[in-house]
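pipeline/complex-builder :: batch 7 item 3
reading input block
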Amino acid sequence: MSKSRTNLMNELNRLHKERRRLVRHLKKEEELAVGTVSIVKRKCGSPRCHCANGPGHPQTLFLFQDKKQQRRRCKLVRREDEPRMLKAGERYRKFREALKQLRAIDFEEKQILMALAEERAISYK
Ligand SMILES: [Zn+2]
């Protein structure tokens, strides 16, 4: 086996390990907030509230795609659901990140396989 072939094979093995790690993470059975969970400041509307002349109250929002209606929706998150939604939102952010890494691995893998193919290519004269 040529040196560059050994290096390419090692690189492929490294990518496979990394892929397994990512897929393990992506398969985890934890609930996800598929969309964006964010905290915004909102005014409650009461003229006597301190927020009337200052920053609003922190409020958690959940932005997501409604599959049935095919449009983006925004829901206020109830106080008692905030910790759960924020955690699930953070999990989904990491899920998306892992998917992105998986795509980068796919790309790298293709490059390596193509380089290995070049080594085996018939040079036909
Ligand atoms: Zn207020």
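note: The chain has a mean pLDDT of 94.
queue -> next item
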